[in-house]
Each structure stands twice: as structure tokens, then as C-alpha cells.
Amino acid sequence: MNRMPRAVAVLLTVNIIVFVAGVLLPNGAERFITAGALWYPTNDNFGLWQLVTYMFLHGSPGHIFFNMFALVSFGGILEREWGAPRFLLFYFVCGVGAALIQTGVNWQEYRSLHEQLVAAGLTPSVISTSLRTGMEPGSLEPAVTATLVDLYRVYGGPMLGASGAIYGLLVAFGFLHPNAKLALMFVPVPIAAKYFTPGLLLLDLFSGVTGFSLFGGSIAHFAHLGGAAIGFLLMLLWRKRSRGPVWENPKAEGKW
């Protein structure tokens, strides 16, 4: 069995340590999320460092398991082909790019909901106070209350998880090894990466646009799509600059 590449091993270890510490320390998960998850820019908890630190926080054992499983499966192959410096650059650029794109989507949604509340008669100062306190400003019509709840979800719902960076790795793997068969635990028939990756992205796009998700709520679908888009653009850029053997083996086979 091949030894796990160093950069992947370090990322895996840090993610696990942070998750375990959040479980074991008093109020650890709450404190880590407050300081390190990515909050909406107008939220008092927001900090620029969160564009990176959010990638090392996970909300449940299942969340971290699937992300780390993908990190080891795809990241190990990519790091062996690229080397640690390029792999880490790719990973973090995809992760930060995913965060920025999701924040941009959130900003558009926030602005639209805010305008609806102002049109319904709420002043910006009343809306701001309600967001900071989490309390409804008096008795409101049900539709206005629902809009205010949606706005608070954007304002007060932090983003966490390595999925944006992971989606970038998935796109890179499919780009380099389109015919590699991915034997997924929830799909009995192996699927070529060139079919699996676009299918997964289309599913995320559908869920992001409609709000209906097969994998449950509170998923930042546009962060997934953003990480994938950044990964794809990086692969195109690097292909133009490289003529090494990494780009000359489109039929390489692999297993996930």
C-alpha cells in the first residue's frame, strides 16, 4: 500500500484534531464555529481569516467522514502527480474561491430579502436590530415574518466544511483521469469520472436553484459549484502552461 502523501496527511490530521477538540472541549464546537466558520460579512462574528479556517470545521461525524474520505481518495492521487506545493495551492485556492462565490450568492439573496422587508414597511434600523438580537420586531404578517426568517438564515447561518476545496479536487481528478471508474459506496455500478463529476455538479445546481436537496438542508450548494468552477479554471490555466506527462495520460484508471 502506498504511503499517504505528506500534505494530504497534514490536512487530514488537522481536520480530525479540530473536530475532536470541538467535541471534547467545553463549548468547543460553539467557540470554534463562532471564531472560525465563515459568517456573513455584516455579522459581528465575521473575520477575513474565516475564508480559510472554515475549511477545517465540520458539523457532524458524517460531514467530516465524507470530506476526508474524498480528500484521501482524490487528493492522494493528485499530490503524487503534482507534488505538495502545487496540490496545496490548488486546494486552498479552490476553498477560498468557493467561500467567495457562496458569499456573493448570499449577498444577492440578502439584498433581495432586505428590499422585500423595506417594501413591507420595516425600516433598515429595525431590520438590523432584529438580525442582531434574533427577535421579531412586534407582530408581523406571516409572509413578512417568513421573509425575516429567511434573511436571518443568511445573516446568522455560518458556512463550514472542506467541501468547496474537495469539489475542486474532484474536478481536477476527472480532468486528468476522465475514464477512471469511481466505485462509490452508495452506487453499486462504477461510473467513469467524466460522467460522475458533471452529474454531481448538475445535482448541486438543481438543489441550489430550487432549494430541494436529496442530501438534506443547510448545504452550501453554490460553494460546491464555486470550488468546482475555480478548480476547472485552474486546470485550464495549468494545461496551457504545462506539457508534462501529467497531461498526456487521459486514459489512466483509478478507483475511489
Question: Could you characterize the architecture of this molecule?
Answer:
With 256 residues, the protein is mainly α. The protein has one domain (6-247): Rhomboid-like (Rhomboid-like fold). Helix content is 66%, strand content 2%. It has 10 helices and 2 strands, in the order H-H-H-H-H-H-H-H-E-E-H-H. The chain has helices spanning 6-24, 28-36, 50-53, 61-82, 84-119, 124-133, 142-156, 163-176, 193-210, 221-241; strands at residues 181-182, 191-192. A two-stranded antiparallel ribbon has the order 1-2. Strand 1 (181-182) and strand 2 form a beta hairpin. The radius of gyration is 20 Å and the shape is globular. The two termini are 15 Å apart. Mean pLDDT is 87; it is low at 244-256.
Topology (elements, then pairings):
Blueprint: H1 6-24, H2 28-36, H3 50-53, H4 61-82, H5 84-119, H6 124-133, H7 142-156, H8 163-176, E1 181-182, E2 191-192, H9 193-210, H10 221-241
Antiparallel strand pairs: 1-2
